[in-house]
Write a structure and sequence with these properties.
The protein is of the alpha+beta class. About 25% of the residues lie in helices and about 25% in strands. It contains 15 helices and 32 strands. Strands 6-5-4-2-7-9-10-11 form an 8-stranded mixed beta sheet, with helices on both faces. The radius of gyration is 24 Å and the shape is globular. About 55% of the residues are buried.
Amino acid sequence: KLFFFSLISCSFSKAQVQKTKIHIEKLDALPSQKGQLMAGSAIFDITPPPGLASGARSSTGKTNMKGFRTRLKGRVFCIRDKEGTNLALVQLDLAFGSLVMHHQIAEEIASKTDIPISNIVLTCTHTHSGPTGFCSNDFYNRNAGALPGFEPQLYSFLTNQIIDGILEAHSNMKPAKIATGQIEIKGITRNRAIMSYIRNKGNEQLDPSDPKLIFEAINPNLYMIRVDVLDKKNKYKPLGAFSTFSIHGTGVGDRVDVFNADVFGFAERDLEWMIEEKYQPKWEVIHALCNGTEGDIAPNLPFYKDTTKETRRVPVDWIAARGIGKRIAQKAWQLFEGLSDQLKEDVNINIAAREINISENNEIDGIQICKQATIGAATVGGAYENRSVLTYILDDGTFMTQRARAELRCQGKKKLFAAPLMQLFNPPSSYPKNVMFQLIQIDDFLLVPLPWEVTITAGERINNKIIEAYTKNKQNPPKYISIASLSNDYMSYATTPEEYSYQAYEGGQTIYGPNTVPYIAAQLFHLTDDLLKEKHISEFPKEWNYDLITQHYYPSKVSNLSERMIVQQPIFKEGNDQISPQKEAYWFIEWQDLLPIDFKMHQSVIQLEKSENGQDWLPVKTNIQPIDDEGYDIEVRIKKKKKGHAVYMAKWYNPELEEAYEYRFRILKRNEKQPDIFSKEFR
């Protein structure tokens, strides 16, 4: 993948290179307020316009995403304890975080609230069907997505949406209660790197041919923080939940051409609807679900027979992804309800954050990582469940293992692919170097946000090192410790030294060498030790300057449209349950509307209505799911652009129609000048 993107980079001569310069200052937050436990929340939309590339899939992604199937959302809890420690716990339906984005958000938030930079965390779902081009470094801006470069308009859109969300959550804080817990979910994930896993100390006797092993070598734990707040009738009702679960965001396959939150989209929305259905709060409930130690954990999708000859690339299978997401939601609901009698007001928050340039400070406790990051040849073939064709050209896949044995000084047994070309267009200076190590303890729950994709064994070792710090200080460790991978930035993978030595995909992506995990664990040991002594750690530079190679993909053409109108009335398409993957039945409609820059895809577009008499129209709801584009059965996509306007298509998947009603699509206005438009009725 990286080889192909290096070739793309060749097309950008030095004279053509554009750069975006960003200057950020670390500001002191406003004075905090003491008193009682308070909490507020917000949910906001981060769905970008069509025309951008998908992220986290490199060359196997799409360069021109058409719209969305499940919207990309951001969710945030602002929580302040009785001592005045205020936290912004942000969850994003994105592939990963961004340190430049985090710090710019922190600068704005500190100027308006009592939330300092150390107390903001950006966690992510790691959906592979979101955008990219907002990273803090040129390497992942160039290589993570289907098109290279930093996209300044996308970056501004995402950053502003997150800032507005945090400010909204901060402004609506109410007296709160919190409970924490954990539940196991098995059968929906599997280990995709089992040959690396069995190399870990203690696993040498495991049989990789045992069909049960891939389903046992997982992290089954879903961790949750439940938050309730006081309503106007002086009763506590759920505000929502923050959860972590370990599963790669690759459930729908890499051939999908619409933005979506993958398996997380189903799990997020289902729990939100369940809570709202039972408790009927006056506010919008949120389920902020982020990823855990997912580095070697894949969704347990069917083993598709038609994809084993040339590649193992997963086809688009919404039904399978939906089933996995709904299973997560069902277990999350079970845990959420079980926490009802554990809610309490006496909750303390302790936070530590320390930013380190790990290239310059590459040694701790005698453990050294490489000063220069390097990507490995094993990444060319892709992860196990999404092999590229190139894998099979290069010796039927053995290129990943038997040949990846060259000793490269501190990088150990890592082989480079097209090394001179790679280093020319991906020099050491382009890789990420600054890491924000962070610990967030909320009562007996410790969240450990890390920018790496951490494997399950790596996560266990990191957690054990954190527990060691508590033992050293003669304190009981938190009951629950959860790593949140891909948080605040992106540093690719973190594999154990044993896993690294095998140099499968995950080891090849461990860019700072075989000692990466011992180094992370040692840093967190000392950060934990300091936190236990001082209760709050915030160590950051006074300012940052970013200079990022830029490309512009954001739509810019403005509309010239006199009238929005239906161009294709509703038509029904049959599904097919006889093939794999299954195809869903749907109704679809097409209409003429504004060009993408004016269309505002991040605002509600369409909903279904029904009527018994043709006059009184009501919103459609299937069980607990509202049938509109805020759910997961309505897809909105651009079909074609014309001079001054565009034609869009909406699909209603898995429709359930009642005989007594007739139905219609309602397409919402995009501005005050254009009214809503309606389709013809259908049954």
